[in-house]
Amino acid sequence: MTMTHTELLEIIRNGENSGVEFKRDDIQNHDLAKELVALTNFEGGIVLLGVEDDGSISGITRQKLEEWVMTACRDKIRPGLIPFYEQIRDVEPGKDVAIVRVSRGLDVHTLWHNNKNSYFIRVGTQSREPTPEELGRLFQQRGSFRAELRPVSGATLVDLDMRRLSNYFAQVREQVVPENNDEAAWRVLLFNTEIMVEDGITVSGILLFGRTPNRFLPQAGIDAVAFPGVDKDYAARERAALRGPMTPLLNDVGDIVEAGLVEQAIAFVQRNTAIGGQLEEGGARRENLSAYPREAIREAIVNALIHRDYLLSSTDIELSIYEDRLEITSPGRLPNGITPARMLTGCRATRNQLIKDVMRDYRYLEHSGMGVPRKIVKCMREHNGTEPQLIEDGELFTIRLLR
């Protein structure tokens, strides 16, 4: 972690960025604390003390600077931070620079100043207070709360599909369920399974079992488009707004009688990627062949529904079919330190645990959490010898399958 003289000069030459801040060393303790709070609430970074905004070296002037830094981090930051501190001597003749480094915080940190806590985040080269939505996502990223368990404003018990709920508890979970008219017993059951909270129906409850989820959560669907070529085109072959609960409605023997979002999306892919057909055994009827393996498509769709960030309310999951590829784009960064490379090895982490548990109960995904390597990667290799592409781009994550 120790930095060399050459490395420091290179950082200074490149200027400030999302992880680097320049400061004179005569700043107030709360000014230093503000920058460190913003950095640790982002991805971590360094404050260089003794460097001007324009990168010129002013050097260290404060006596007992290390002690002052540590005291500021203890007194002005909640929870307190212990940064890594080092001093590079003679960056320019007779001028030293101090490096104060913090890593990505496990908690959400605040600046304690003027008898109040203030939140800060790093946005480019600026440290600023977050919007309510940004703050909510920050707490979610740090595991301080689960957005899927927030109550949905205005949603009540009548907004849940009791047929699907009865399916789930009686057929999928194989447990005794209350009578349909026993509202008190249903409330107890739904409260104990986190489909309800004291303030109403949870986000997960509406997404999984809501009669019309989009009435309350406009982002609760899949926008599906099939393009005739390799680029986005207004002249699409088909556009569809896939809406409704994630879970299907089952009959008494477990067959699907009303599709959930997964089945709707699979059907859209199948009718827009058929490449011919073959006679089923016995020659009874013709079965369409797909350009993509059904298991890979299903796994990619389920992953998007389970892992998307439902705090991002302005956009749906996008299912895009092109002549040469299929893309499923999910709003939100990958959760809990997951990267595309770690997904390919089967690393398990989730943003929406209740949604994941319920969809796993319906056998939409494996208990092992190995769906990406075992289903998507394996099926595509066997199908056409291609590797799926997992792409994280800002606040979007895309799984791309090649035709």
Automatic annotation (TrEMBL):
A GO term for molecular function: helicase activity
Keywords recorded for this protein, A-Z: ATP-binding, Helicase, Hydrolase, Nucleotide-binding
Cleaved signal peptide residues: none
Transmembrane feature ranges: none
The Schlafen AlbA-2 domain, residue ranges: 16-129
Keyword rRNA-binding in annotation: no
UniProt keyword ATP-binding present: yes
Domain of life: Bacteria
Protein name: ATP-dependent DNA helicase RecG
Source organism: Acidithiobacillus ferrooxidans
